[in-house]
Structures are given as C-alpha cells and as structure tokens.
Amino acid sequence: MAAEQPDPGRRERKKQRTRESIQDAAYRLFAAHGFEQTTVNEIAAEADVSPGTFFNHFPAKESVLFNDRTALIEQGTRTIAAREPAEPPIEALVRVVLAMLDAPGLDAGSDRERLRLEIVMDSPVLRGLMFQRMFDIQDQLAEALRATDPGLGELEAAALVGAVMGAGSAAVQTALQSGLPLEESLRRALGHITRHLQAAAG
C-alpha cells in the first residue's frame, strides 16, 4: 500500500496558523509591556512555540509588526500605471491610496490593524521604522507617477505624493488619538485634501 502523500495545502494552512498564533502572542505582549521590553523568548513562550520556530516565521521581533508590503506597493504602482493622461495627478494618487487600502492582507478597518498601529506609534524605534518604510513607498510611487507624466519634475512628483501620504499619516494619528474609525478617517482626509488641492490648482 502506497504511503499517504503529504498535503501541501494542509501544511501551508498549519504554517499560517502558527504564524498568526505568534503574531497574536506578540501583539498581546507588546500592548501589555511595550515593544522594547518584550523579548523573542517571551513571545515564543506565549505562543507555545520554540524560539527557533519564531525565527522560522519572522527574522526579528519587529517583523511581526511590519510584514512584507511588496503586494501593497505593486497594487499602488499598477494603479498609477493605469492612469488616464487627462486625470489630474492628485486624483490618481488618491485612487492609489484607496486601492492600497483594498490590497490583500491589509484590513485598515480591523481592530487588529488599529492595535498594530497603536503599538507602533507607542515606540520610538517602531515609529522610525514606519516612517522609513513610508519614505521608501513614497519614492516608488513618485517614480511611477513620473513615468506616466514626463512633464512632471522630480520635485513636483515627490511633493504631490508627499501631500497625499502625509494626509493619510495625519489622519491615522488623529484617528488613534481620538478613537475615530481608521478607514473612515483615511477616506475623509483624502477627500478633503483632494478638494483643497483642486481648488488651489483651479
């Protein structure tokens, strides 16, 4: 009788459950004790896995909070590439941010995402990492925008992307401080800045 072959799908589901268990444990400990005060060994113990298993899923404890955002960036650059020539750059960039909110793996309206952002904003180390990642995303979006509009200079493209991303960042910070829903706040802020920049351009 032939030996039963392992089910790749089942193995992948088990791997994903372990990853989520580690993330849940880390979030609980970070929220209770702070990011800097929490060790990998404590996270592993809370998740009931070995430290080695932790490192099989995450290269460092900050990686629990900052997953690979390749798909997110690709969603943004694809949206820019599909821009119609007559579409104002600011409108295209707002569409980009809204498309990125709908990217797989990002649920801006979830309690989990709110908790993640609260943990990040509470730590100077994590805030620095977040802003560095945001600057990298801005650079890539500005480059993609210029590719659709040869007449747009490097400074102008960077300023437009920075205005939209800055509005989103400010909306997130205000929402966290005031208890407003994250996704609703982001969408309101983007609509607000679009109206004002269009009025200034007109």
Automatic annotation (TrEMBL):
GO terms for molecular function: DNA-binding transcription factor activity; transcription cis-regulatory region binding. The keyword Cytoplasm does not apply. Residues 39-58 bind DNA. It holds the Pfam family TetR_C_14. Keywords: DNA-binding, Transcription, Transcription regulation. InterPro entries: DNA-bd_HTH_TetR-type_CS (IPR023772), Homeodomain-like_sf (IPR009057), HTH-type_TetR-like_transc_reg (IPR050109), HTH_TetR (IPR001647), MftR_C (IPR041347). The keyword Transport does not apply. Residues 16-76 form the HTH tetR-type domain. It comes from the Bacteria. PANTHER family: HTH-TYPE TRANSCRIPTIONAL REGULATOR BETI, HTH-TYPE TRANSCRIPTIONAL REGULATOR RUTR. This is HTH tetR-type domain-containing protein. It comes from Glycomyces algeriensis. The lineage of its organism: Bacteria, Bacillati, Actinomycetota, Actinomycetes, Glycomycetales.
